[in-house]
Automatic annotation (TrEMBL):
<keyword id="KW-0546">Nucleotide metabolism</keyword>
<feature type="binding site">
    <location>
        <position position="113"/>
    </location>
    <ligand>
        <name>ATP</name>
    </ligand>
</feature>
<dbReference type="GO" id="GO:0006241">
    <property type="term" value="P:CTP biosynthetic process"/>
</dbReference>
<keyword id="KW-0418">Kinase</keyword>
<feature type="binding site">
    <location>
        <position position="58"/>
    </location>
    <ligand>
        <name>ATP</name>
    </ligand>
</feature>
<keyword id="KW-0067">ATP-binding</keyword>
<dbReference type="GO" id="GO:0046872">
    <property type="term" value="F:metal ion binding"/>
</dbReference>
<comment type="similarity">
    <text>Belongs to the NDK family.</text>
</comment>
<dbReference type="GO" id="GO:0005524">
    <property type="term" value="F:ATP binding"/>
</dbReference>
<dbReference type="GO" id="GO:0006228">
    <property type="term" value="P:UTP biosynthetic process"/>
</dbReference>
<keyword id="KW-0547">Nucleotide-binding</keyword>
<dbReference type="InterPro" id="IPR001564">
    <property type="entry name" value="Nucleoside_diP_kinase"/>
</dbReference>
<dbReference type="InterPro" id="IPR034907">
    <property type="entry name" value="NDK-like_dom"/>
</dbReference>
<feature type="domain" description="Nucleoside diphosphate kinase-like">
    <location>
        <begin position="2"/>
        <end position="136"/>
    </location>
</feature>
<feature type="binding site">
    <location>
        <position position="86"/>
    </location>
    <ligand>
        <name>ATP</name>
    </ligand>
</feature>
<keyword id="KW-0479">Metal-binding</keyword>
<keyword id="KW-0963">Cytoplasm</keyword>
Amino acid sequence: STNRTFTMIKPDAVANGHIGSIVNDITKAGFKIIALKYTKLSAEKAGEFYAVHKERPFYNDLVSFMSSGPIVAAILEKDNAIEEFRNLIGATNPAEAAEGTIRQKYAKSIDANAVHGSDSDENAQIEGDFFFSADERF
Ligand code: CMP
């Protein structure tokens, strides 16, 4: 559905103590939390999550980084959620992220870029289902 997206707070932002600030930015921007989980991906699970990028040169680094420490996964709800959330987090490369965006504030590099945001309704559904069962959504 077009009013939901999926996000992860990545290992860099967790390790740097930014969980609270990022969740605060997300809720202040008007997103409602539908599901929320603090967990860690195995390399196998990270590879499965990012399978769409399997042929990309950055795939191995991405998988090892995303399994290097705990993450926060969440399903978020807001009108026009995909686009609104992408605007909130800024460009994939934090060097290109607009002032005030989450990646501009908390990210250091294109790999350690603080947060993930779904790029389509279809992927938001798939990614949310990867982490959350029906009884973990409120
Ligand atoms: P994310 O939105 O989680 O989706 C895939 C991730 O791969 C992306 O954020 C980046 O952290 C990482 N990545 C590394 N290099 C690139 C690249 N050249 N283009 C896109 N994503 C990249």
